[in-house]
Amino acid sequence: MQQGLAEKYELFGCMQCGKCTAGCPVSLRGPLNIRRLIREVMIDRNLEAAARPEFWDCTTCSTCSLRCPRGLEPHELIIGIRGALIEEGRIPATARDALEGVFKHGNPWGRIRSKRSEWAADLGIKDLSKGDKADLLYFVCCAASYDPRVQEVAKALTDSLAKAGVDFGILGNEESCCGSEVRRMGEEGLFEMLVEDNLKLFHERGITKVVTTSPHCYDAFKNKYQDSEIEFQHYTQLVADLISQGQLTFSKELNKVVTYHDPCYLGKQNSIYDEPRYILKSIPGIQFVDFDRCRERSLCCEGGGGRMWVEGTDAGERLSGIRIRDAVEMGVDIVATACPFCLLTLEDAAKTAGLDGKIEIKDIMELVAQAI
Questions:
Q1: Overall pTM > 0.85
Q2: pLDDT mean over 226-248
Q3: Which residue would you say has higher pLDDT here, 40 or 235?
């Protein structure tokens, strides 16, 4: 098994320079050592090394892969090892429950499918599952469908699209998990099933354009589904276009100092850096300042790679806490982001630090909706 992993991920090309570990955001606070893990898998043939608790600290943010001088993808190795461990039944109970929830109910929280579209009740949004037709599918995602906090983002986005005259609809209760975090936790078989089922549904409904709330959904659709007949966008791309074309205009000022937290799956993995900043700078009254660690150097919030369902180790200060502390030192009023997981982890960090009410954590679409 270990030999297969070494060949599949080209580990014999690793020169043990350590740039993967040195650049790893999680290694800043804990014992995760990617270079050592590669060595143990490649040379020592020791899969037991991956059973350590810190192995699940990895958020698959891809910083290690971006910094590898040999062009290897260490974060993909971690996903592969997780898959091998799953086959042996060695997986954290919370991750196992999340995967089971996706298989049974189409979402990692295991919530009832019939409640997936409750957030949209009485909003007048087209439902393609009921025969409505639209030019654009808004793929809501599991977090925005079920989490009360993230539902506010979905409402802000749909309200803004409606005011811009965009013809869009949702899949209602037919929508299922995109499978991004399923794959990142190592369950490749379940991910492939979701890809097949979702693409079949998209084609049956005549969908050719999709916009997502979550960078995780966008990344999975764009880079892993590989369907050339469907155009996928993250909402920041669409909204930036609507603003530049004059379809979305603002009537109110937001006199706030705002910074932007780059989600890993939007920035590092898909190089979408400018559109979110363009949106924020277009809102009247906003004074925009960037984090020192921004764009490709941005700190991970630690929400990806299945970490929303795996607690991980307690070593060191959480990166989301560091992020909030940096924002406070910058004197900003609002930390904006464009990812449900980032929104939730940063907001939790602000509450933990006793800063709830002193600094706001907002999704970009909430600020857009306020200013329209």
A1: yes
A2: 96
A3: 235
The strand pairing partners of 139, in sequence order, are 212
Strands (E), the chain: 126-127, 136-139, 168-170, 209-212, 231-234, 257-260, 287-288, 334-337, 360-363
Which H helix or E strand runs over 322? helix 319-330
Task: Please state, rounded to an integer, the average pLDDT across all residues of the chain.
Answer: 91
CATH of 2-87, one of 3.40.50.720, 3.40.50.300, 1.10.1060.10, 3.10.129.10: 1.10.1060.10
Indicate if the pLDDT at residue 42 is higher than 70. Answer: no
**DSSP character for 223?**
I
Six token digits for residue 121:
């009740």
Name the 3-class secondary structure at 256. coil
Assign a CATH topology to domain 247-371: Rossmann fold (3.40.50)
- Which amino acid appears at position 44 of this protein? D
Tokens of 355: 């800063």
8 A C-beta contact, residue 362 and residue 254: no
